[in-house]
Amino acid sequence: MADQDQRLALRTGDALVVVDVQVDFLPGGSLAVPRGDEVVPVLNRWLAAAASRGLPVYATRDWHPPGHCSFRARGGPWPPHCVAGSAGAAFAPGLLLPGGADVVSKATDPDRDAYSGFQGTDLDARLRAAGARRLLVGGLATDYCVLETVRDARRLGYEVLLLADAVRAVEVRPGDGARALEEMRRAGARPAALADLSP
Question: Which of 93, 121, 146, 196 is 20 to 30 A from residue 5's alpha carbon, by CA?
Answer without folding.
Answer: 146
